[in-house]
Amino acid sequence: MSCKRMEQAVVISQDRIAPDIFSMWLQTEEIASLAVPGQFLSLYTEDKSKLLPRPISLCEIDEEKGRLRVVYRVTGANTGTEQFSRKVAGEKIKVLGPLGNGFPLDVGRGKKVCLIGGGIGVPPLLELARQLEADLQIVMGYRDRTFLAEEFQKYGTLFVATEDGSAGTKGTVLDAIREQAVSAELIYACGPAPMLRAVKQYAETENIVCYVSMEERMACGIGACLACICQSKEVDEHSNVHNKRVCKDGPVFLSTEVEI
Amino acid sequence: MGAAERDRAGDVAEKKESVWNLAVNIAGVELKNPVMTASGTFGSGGEYREFVDLNCLGAVVTKGVANVPWPGNPAPRIAETYGGMMNAIGLQNPGMDVFCKRDLPSLQKWLHRDFCEQNSPDGGESGHALDTTRIVVNVCGRSVEDYCEVVERLTEEPVDLLEINISCPNVKEGGIAFGQDPRAAEQITRAVKKYAKQPVIMKLSPNVTDIAEMAKAVEAGGADGVSLINTLTGMKIDIHRQTFAVANKTGGLSGPAIKPIAVRMVYEVAQAVSLPVIGMGGIATAEDALEFILAGATAVSVGTANFYSPTATAEVVDGIRDYMVRHKVKDIKELVGMVK
Hints:
The complex is a heterodimer.
Chain A: E1 5-18, E2 21-27, H1 31-34, E3 40-43, E4 54-62, E5 67-73, H2 80-85, E6 92-99, E7 112-118, H3 124-131, E8 135-142, H4 149-152, E9 157-162, E10 169-170, H5 173-179, E11 186-190, H6 193-205, E12 209-213, E13 229-232, E14 243-245, E15 252-254, E16 258-259
Parallel strand pairs in A: 7-8, 7-11, 8-9, 9-10, 11-12
Antiparallel strand pairs in A: 1-2, 1-6, 2-5, 3-4, 3-6, 4-5, 12-15, 13-14, 13-16
Chain B: H1 3-16, E1 24-26, E2 29-31, E3 35-37, E4 59-61, E5 78-81, E6 84-87, H2 96-110, H3 113-118, E7 134-139, H4 144-153, E8 161-165, H5 176-179, H6 182-195, E9 200-203, H7 211-220, E10 225-228, E11 232-235, E12 237-238, E13 243-244, E14 250-254, H8 259-272, E15 277-280, H9 286-295, E16 299-302, H10 305-308, H11 312-326
Parallel strand pairs in B: 3-16, 4-7, 7-8, 8-9, 9-10, 10-15, 15-16
Antiparallel strand pairs in B: 1-2, 5-6, 6-14, 11-14, 12-13
């Protein structure tokens, strides 16, 4: 399975879409034609003191033009993500990808599907929404400011939850699901661990098949360093212990495969 | 063709000829070049096949393997630091049974070893076919018995060298317990040697007062070589979460940030013992590797660099060859320990 590429991608555009959230389109040579929703890129800074690439999920894939969109959070001053946010159109950025397994698309075809995103877990669901041929209920949770929400509207029925109640349901994505009586045969979820834990529990109680996209700190991004593990329910075939690699075996897992 | 172009063409032709000898010998095992992978940074080779031709390396050193599967430490297991990183993976490994049944045969296949050994002058009897990329298995354990069990299991496997990890700072028992006490280090070396069919390289910890003393201890125990350095114990605090950046509290620091310490220790050990030294610690480029070689390392390992530059190993091989051509060094062995 040889499909990863190291490239110098060219920044096509860079927009700030919320206080700490940036949207960047990248021109790639081959990666865009290989990528599927739910996969991610390793992005490299030019700062030699910051060795490790930053794993950032794909928000949109424009196969025709060979472009990829990443929507990412700047995590603070002097961080790698802050350096990415300073890149302007025409500048280059070293990327490795596409990485990870991505969301399975076939299982969702023709079904009533619920996409659940939380915070910076919202972006990877956008390309999934575009590619899934399904009846989509889309539930997006934010702390306060929403972003990307309006872009989901064309793909299905959108429900928003905010912790501060500034938009949609006040509370979590699960509060929105209950308040709006959202039902589904299949769930795809991406977000912080507490949200995924709640969604997993909800899905398993309701007997809904659920795919979760996990996150963990990574070094290599290709399955070698064993840093980004998550716990698996059964003994994993590769590790021979109860660990799966988020970067290579995931980031997308069946909720019943993993402990969150 | 102009003179300059002719010169360049000549250079290329010259480079390709075998006049530039990169081969080195570690405890009787010939490596086609001195570049190895550092244990734990290269899996069992599989993940890197997309990026480098494994057959261009002197040796592949596998991730540490124990007698039984080890689950490793909880996440987060790593944290980035200035010019380096800290890890506390905790020697997660599938255990020697799965390793021998699955990982070793795969690696052997990728390294075309069946082909090479059939074509070696002695039909592969000695396993010394020159073209072969060597397989080095890193062995870890919690007790002397654990180590010996793995070493014994590997006697009939296609393994060229054993590297005994007595220096992992991230596991409570075993590992570092043997790596910080010269007597314990000597004893475990002696015990392992009783069971080992392949030459034994002892991997030393930098978390000691006098690493030369540790090298002398394993030499006295019968070691066939030493490799150094493993990671330096460090700590990072996450000021946002107000807790330790890695769940294990401490982690092993690696990467370019530690290179000067590693070079110094390789120099000290090379001066102190007559064993071959495999040098590592922050090597990302050929220039880095050459520092270690000039300081006394017979071979070098590329570690953390694999994580951020998956083609680093192959680039180090090419860069060393370029350096030899540039400096008209016919045999790399001339460079080993040249700086006294």
